[in-house]
Amino acid sequence: IKSGSKNNYAVYSLGISEQRHRHLQIEKDLYQALERQEISLVYQPQIQAAGGLIVGWEALVRWQHPEMGWISPGEFIAVAEETGLILQLGQYVLRHACRQMAIWRDLGYRDWHVAVNLSVKEFREASFLASVSAILQETDLEPHYLELELTERIAMENEEDTLQKLRYLKEQGVKLSIDDFGTGYSSLSYLPLYPIDKLKIARELVVMAEHKEEGMEIIAAILSLAHALNLSVIAEGVETREQLRFLLAQGCRQIQGYYFSKPLPPEQCVPFAQSFKV
Ligand code: C2E
Ligand code: CA
Ligand code: CA
């Protein structure tokens, strides 16, 4: 469980047996949650700071449990991975995100993309590529509107399989980014091998850079690495004007975080875009 949200603190304060009970309850109810439409998506804008253009939206999954209330993905994604339900959940998320992007495209937002998070298990599945293609076809969405966010762990493991899948997606025109960059593995040797488009600087680094010189230096190093490899960069979890200022000063052009907007339900995205000014 990641720390940070109020919900998670509630979980920390539970005893071991209560935690176990909650875990089992989540495991049991997640099966029905999909059918009962308790799962939905919210979208957080990704902003090109110069000019204040919205370039895309990251889809983030939400579960409103009838008794337990909102359950954070930090809690139930792990359960879904353990039980194998992540495959169904992943397809559900991808389908809804692509459907939503097709609606935005048809409204004229043709320079947006939708970014979808992938879990390792989903990516490793033999049917993964077929299911991405099927969903793009079914939702009638051109692949360049879709960006897949991979973790460093996906990128590091199982090189041959990873390379093959990423190349296929790239050939189709799907965009690829590395999520939470700078927190996981220290090896960067995979980067030039893979057809990656974008690095997402992890929130932890943004927070660290505010207080520590080292954080700032890591971010500067990521930006120069990205420049050398011709990758674009976005910083996530940007909350304050101070953070925004030093990221822009370092040359990071794309920003995502509460400073601009929290994740929004789909019906609020277009109104947000229409009224958005930096
Ligand atoms: P992530 O991919 O790193 O997503 C960013 C998380 O930070 C989201 O939490 C988002 O709501 C939150 N966030 C955005 N801006 C800020 C900010 O300025 N400050 C702070 N403190 N937080 C901010 P969320 O939605 O609870 O998701 C947590 C994690 O769950 C995600 O981390 C991602 O790893 C995973 N996740 C979410 N949706 C999906 C999904 O559809 N599929 C998969 N496989 N994983 C998902
Ligand atoms: Ca993400
Ligand atoms: Ca993150």
TrEMBL record:
Record-annotated EAL domain positions: 23-277
Superkingdom to which the source organism belongs: Bacteria
Protein name: EAL domain-containing protein
Originating species: Ectobacillus ponti
Complete-protein stretch covered: 620 to 897 of 897
